[in-house]
Amino acid sequence: MVDIASLVRSESALDDFDYHHLLNLLSEWQLLSDLSFADLILWVPTRRSYNDWPDGYIVMSQIRPTTAATLFTQDMLGEKIKWGDNPQIDHSMKTGDILRDVEPTMVGDLLVKVETIPVNFRNRTIAVISRHRNAEQMRSASRLEINYREIAHKIYLMIAQGNFPIPNSIYVSESAPRVGDGLIRLNPNGEIAYCSPNARSALSRAGWSGELIGVDLGNIFESIKTHSTNAVDESFGDVFISKNVRRIEFENARGTFDLLTLPLIENADIVGVVVLIHNITELRRRDKALISKDATIKEIHHRVKNNLQTVSAILRLQSRRVEDETASAALAEAVRRVASIAIVHETLAGSTTGKVDFDEVISRIIHNAIELGTHPINLVQEGKFGTFESIIATPLALVLTELIHNALEHGLDKKGDQLRVLVARSESQCIVKVLDNGEGLPENFDWEKSSNLGLQIVRTLTENELKGSISLKSVEHETVATLEFPISNF
After folding, report:
1. What is d(CA 268, CA 204) in angstroms, rounded to the nearest whole number?
2. What one-character-per-residue DSSP string does 168-218 give?
3. Which of 104, 118, 247, 302 could in theory staple to 125 by disulfide, Cβ–Cβ 3.0 to 4.6 A?
4. CA 71, CA 36: separation in Å to the nearest integer?
């Protein structure tokens, strides 16, 4: 695949400022194409420096309109032509002028009109735009098409004068309103000169039922607002006649509307303004619903955590009143297991992604366990767990709780002073090892025949919930529990 950026930079005289100017132009590429009802191609002259005359051109970008059928089925990115192959492009490159008055020519079965526009920046022509339109469709243009093309011509004139992209303006994202959403054309005083059908519908939905042509757009929005909107300091009238590209969100009791203003500048004077308007009422309703749902889920996790802590407290209280040591120990183990699940839900309650930062969870589990120990333990933790969905985090927390406490209670309670937790995670698998240098496993240890409830819980959760495998064995002077489970299955 062609790296067009590297190709253009290596074969042209563009410096960083020139290149970023063209990138800003391309951020408005679809707008220009849609207003023109035309395919656009950006030609960058190939030469070593600006002191050299171009020996040809290379295609840096190409865009097809969404408002008309494309004239090009093939992609032209990276294609090259020599100087003299296209006199129209050469003319705009040499003179710095827009070339419009050229007779249409037949391209296959279509009559195509081509116009060329120089891209001037810092008093020199750094590229040329060729605009390709179906001449037959131009002969029966509607009022909408005529207005769109007049606006496009104003913008192309700005490009040729070095006024577009507009300096000091923050260019908008792909989510901004587009031509097809609704277009309003204002005169220099902010009065509506043209309003597309979709724009009329949007204003009607917003609450305006009066006349549009000749009416100040700022006054319309001031009259239909029901509360302060978008926290703008200036009035809507000032927003709509600004020399900068502006994007605001208007909201009233009837809906929410995304507004993008683009000033048309000629010789440093505003000669008009284009306002793109998009009704985003339903989109914002869905956003609010998602925010509400997210808040509800967090509140559920918070309440589950609180309930688990209540259960844990009750079990702890009960264990203190039971005289039988075996029963008291069993209740203490239940308290520990419930606490591990509570930690997961506490982490979820504070998560913005709905995932569990498991390194935080395991850190708390380990330190809580060590604090209950009878003698100092040296902890070594290597590797990172990262984040997990709750469907993994909950059983994993329980499994590691059992393995760590098993190491502390049955291995390190009599001798040994080191606990190691090693993690190796890839995109598809996670391997966790819990090692201790304690007493070691009993002779002829058999996992299948072990009566240890904690180990039975570990095996059941590993196989059924994590869909993984676990082993427990002695290696040299250490007891090693190895847990392996897939991540891609979840």
Report:
1. 34
2. T-----TTS--GGG-EEEE-TTSBEEEE-HHHHHHHHHHT--S--TTSBHH
3. 118
4. 13
